[in-house]
Amino acid sequence: MIIGFDTKITRYYLLATMLPILLTGCVMPGTHLNKNNDNVVEINSNEGSSNLSSSVNLYPLDAESVANYRDVSQPVSQANHKLDQEISKYEYRIGVGDILNITIWDHPELTIPAGSYRSASDSGNWVHADGTIFYPYIGIVKVAGKTVGEIRSDVAKRLAKYIESPQVDVNVAAFRSKRTYITGEVNKPGQQAITNIPLTLLDAINHSGGLSENADWRNVSLTRDGVEQTLSLYGLMQRGDLTQNRLLRPGDIIHVPRNDNQKIFVMGEVNQPQLLKIDRAGMTLTEALSSAGGINELSADATGIFVIRSSDNKQERMADVYQMNMSDASALVVGTEFDLKPYDIVYVTAAPISRWNRIIGQFLPTINGFNNLGEGVLRLRNWP
Q1: Among candidates 293, 295, 324, 291, which has minimal Cα distance to 307?
Q2: pLDDT tens digits, residue range 351-380?
Q3: According to the model, what pLDDT value does residue 287 have?
Q4: Burial label, 301 (beta-carbon count in 10 A; 0-12, 13-18, 19+)
Q5: CATH number belonging to domain 99-174
Q6: What is the largest CA-CA distance in the chain?
Q7: How confident is the prediction for the chain on average, in pLDDT?
Q8: Would you say residue 181 has pLDDT above 90?
Q9: Assuming Cys at both sites, which of 144, 155, 175, 379 could form a disulfide with 195, CB separation 3.0 to 4.6 Å?
Q10: Is the pLDDT of residue 1 over 50?
Q11: What confidence tens digit (pLDDT) does each residue in 235-260 have?
């Protein structure tokens, strides 16, 4: 009896001795951040300010209310009378670097002094840096800032002293003084000359080969005299809103950005959570769910399809949340009428039973571990 008691004492002593040695090499798995000793800085820590729910508005998304959430700022087809007036009054004014072709009828010695085999741009009159040209008999002529009609009248008036009733014709052989620039997501970025034909924004985009695949055509910028304005090629080309068109001037810079910031986030109980980019045609809630593989039918709560949208006025509220009940699959039609905006978050919640199963799943490893430990202790106790 004493020998059996000593044997049990020896086993327990051995177990107590080995357990610290075994646990010495064990560490907690994974990484963590200990915030116990951190100095938490609270900004505007008013009472109740940490309650995010009070600064979020929830809107039901159903067949009756979806029409109220449509963007009222959608462009519509309309004329641009201001642009029409600018084009009707447009006249090209000569600048430094332009080449003029001045023709004096019945006087070929003045028209082509260098021979008939040279092009108009080669044999024409180059506008010098001081804005002048030289012409036989009349000498220096100031042409910069004038139209061809004004130059024609000036040259004819001064030539009348040497030629009886001169028939003068003036045209621009090469436009080299005035340019506009187009950059970004177009097929042929570069500079485009301002000529005697009015150049509009739409013309410049077409001359550059059109938009590339990754172009954000809703936020095209036009910089003029250091002032930037945002224009929508979507409204101009797709909706026929001609008020988005502009008559371009020398030095204008057109930039077509990439659509990298046209992104939305699909998260939660969907089959393929991912980041999506809004294409040129836009994206609806149903399209976003479809691109993510649809909701997970085994774990998703079909009544909790949320669209979380950051508020424009952060002082009033942080976000607007739109909730769609998709327990009836016909509600997907409602989703096709709800347009998403950049940086919207589409979140599908988990069903209550799924959340409960996940909680139980957290306890199962611990329960199984205690069960295995108890069985191990029982084996040691019954060890002969």
Answers
A1: 324
A2: 888 888 888 888 788 878 777 877 777 777
A3: 93
A4: buried
A5: 3.30.1950.10
A6: 148
A7: 83
A8: yes
A9: 175
A10: no
A11: 998 888 999 999 999 999 999 999 88
**Which of 153, 180, 310 shows the shortest CA–CA distance to 246?**
180
Residue with the two structure tokens 């002593």: 13
For 178-259, which CATH superfamily applies? Outer membrane lipoprotein wza domain like (3.10.560.10)
The residue that leads in pLDDT, 120 or 209, is: 209
**Domain boundaries, given as residue ranges, for the chain:** 55-71+262-353, 99-174, 178-259
Return the CATH fold of 55-71+262-353.
Outer membrane lipoprotein wza fold like (3.10.560)
- Tens digits of residue pLDDT in 330-356: 888 988 889 899 999 999 999 888 888
pTM: 0.71
